[in-house]
Every structure is written in C-alpha cells, then in structure tokens.
Automatic annotation (TrEMBL):
The lineage of its organism: Bacteria, Pseudomonadati, Bacteroidota, Cytophagia, Cytophagales. Residues 1-22 are annotated as: Disordered. Residues 7-17 have a biased composition (Basic residues). It holds the Pfam family DUF3175. This is DUF3175 domain-containing protein.
C-alpha cells in the first residue's frame, strides 16, 4: 500500500507593501490620498506630511516623492490608466511645490 504525501499549501502571505502604505513610519498620510483625482491635492498633501514628519530619514522632497513612487509601483497592474496618469502628474506637481526642475524639461 503506497502512502500518499499531501502537501499543505501555506496561506497566502499578506503583502508587506500594503502595510508600508498604511503604517509608514516616515509619513502620516491623509486617508485615501492616492485615490484623489486632483494631482495638486495629492502633491500638497504629500508635501505637508513630509514637512511635518519628525521621523523621516531624508529630505521632505525625497520622502514625499519616494512614497508616491512606491505607491505607483505597488499598485502596478491594478492601477487603471487614468489614475496612473493622475499620480504621474502629481509627481510633476510635487516637483513644482519643492522648486525642483521637471524631469521632461
């Protein structure tokens, strides 16, 4: 009689990246800010959060841009084209708010 070997599937691990967005130690983000349809509002919120944070490890600009880029990368294929465009536009707005040169200039 042959013994069957059953392999147990491990439960799907929760993505660490989701937790980072929700509980970032560097920035206190406004709730659902990345779902906003207004790039200026997103940029202003990130700037405000980055400037008031005492826990960030780099400059406010870098912290804000890193969080925005992280969110875009984390959302990946689940981010519809129109929202991705809004978030990319928010990067340009963030550069303006911090008096940085646009990437495409």
């Amino acid at each position: 009689m042959a013994t069957e070997t059953k392999t147990k599937k491990k439960p799907a691990a929760k993505k660490w990246s989701g937790k980072v967005t929700e509980t970032s130690d560097a920035l206190d983000l406004d709730k659902d800010i990345f779902e906003s349809k207004d790039p200026s509002k997103i940029a202003a919120s990130l700037k405000h959060s980055a400037e008031k944070s005492q826990r960030k490890k780099s400059s406010p600009y870098r912290s804000a841009m890193s969080m925005l880029t992280f969110y875009v990368n984390r959302a990946g294929k689940n981010l519809d084209a129109s929202q991705k465009k809004i978030l990319e536009d928010a990067k340009d707005e963030l550069r303006k708010l911090f008096d940085r040169k646009p990437v495409h200039a």
